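DM from R.C. (forwarded with permission)

"hey, sorry to bug you on a friday — could you get me a structure for this? deadline for the figure draft is monday and I only need the backbone to look sensible"
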Amino acid sequence: MTELLIRGARKAYGATLALRRGDFDLKGGEVHVLIGSNGSGKSTLCKIVAGSVKPDAGEVVLNGAPVTIAGPQASRALGIGIFYQELSLAARRTVAENILLPELPATGGLFVNRRELDERAARYIAEFADVAGDGFSADTPVLNLRADQRQLVEIMKALASEAPILIFDEPTSALDRAQVDRFFEILKRLKGEGRAIVFISHRMDEIFAIGDRVTVIRDGETVATSNIAETDPSTVIRQMVGDQGELVAAAAAPAAAPGEARIALQVDRLGGQGFTEISFRVARGEILGFGGLHGQGQSSVLRALFGAASHDAGSVTLDGKPYKAASPRDAIAHGVAYVSGDRSRDGVVQGRPILENVTPIHFLRNRIGLVRPSALKDKADGPLKALKTKFQTIDHPINSLSGGNQQKIVIARWLIDRPDVLLLDDPTKGIDLQAKSDLFALIRQLAAEGMGIVLYSSEDAELLANADRILVFNSGSVTRELRGDERTRYNLYHAAYEAA
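My reply, with the result:
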């Protein structure tokens, strides 16, 4: 029997049509994948079911009966639980409190029943105990957790709802492979219990590993639903792209020859919190990849090089000269750029116009006080077009854009005044396939023009397709370097897991 049926759902925000015609059906005992480009309408469809968005038209049918979902509380009462792509945790509350936040057990109606809270939360914490990593416990405040650990808490929070219908919107974007594997084990168990699960992901390998059916949404409309066993990745991608033409194919990375080119960045025995004895060189025109399981020191090294974190050992030279960034502002002045995949924390200034979000680095590097808006728009136009950024006007607030287009704004701000070294910290996390294709086409172009690029990606396929060399991290150290024909999925997995 169909658990959930959505017919003709429509939602507009002013002149922006977020969802034109959303059709979707979900059955008990299945994982139904929902896929589409950022801004295609899939998250809006899920938010309609979760009660956080009210549709302008359409019908929601639950267990054969039409329902009106008045809000999140009504959705929970109907047996629907959701994991949000943008985390909805209370930073100063503990892990246990966040897991049960929607319904904290109370004593006398006033005070939290700590014993019941701990007992109930412990069940969900135990599911991930051996993959959550150091510093993760029931009484740890969420603000002290890493990004992957915060995401695990959000997953536990959704599981704790014990809802018959569960919606997971990009739940694995910050997780490492061991964490993803554990999560998938749990999903398979829940499916066996008859739960109905919606799973949104941009990772094609995950979709085909966990899904039973897949529904594709394009430009606000449902365009296809298929059994996973009867389709393939190329078909799904063609359905996503439609008549927009073929995606730019990921070019095979050229053989790197850093010894024949001018060295842009050299790092010798760098050490700090989360990493030790890190040494490498990046030549101008080279893309150096950081691989390995998530949270093995890759991001910490990049943030230290950008002055956003400290290092207490080793040395760095930039274009042959000693370099140590005391702060991000210092790094910017030296021509070093940093792009984080956590755009909500390190990227966009929500509520402010696109123009203000794309030009702050230009102000810093050139020490500009006052400037005409028209001149700024001219400066921003080239980078925005190079990344194929979609927006109505540059004066619109950045939160009017999809996640993928917000990330393009974050990247474009560094291209008005070209840096010498570009540090990319999992830059495609949570963005769609088309946006990824646009981004990597530009990255290869920037390398060809002589920029030195360091790319950390939690997606192995991105590294294998775009990096000239790959340094595999494990437990804060580089365990192997992969060059040329060594850059295979097997070698990458072997190096990442052998010491883990």
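R.C.: lifesaver. The domain at 2-243 is CATH 3.40.50.300 (Rossmann fold).
me: no worries. The longest strand covers residues 2-13.
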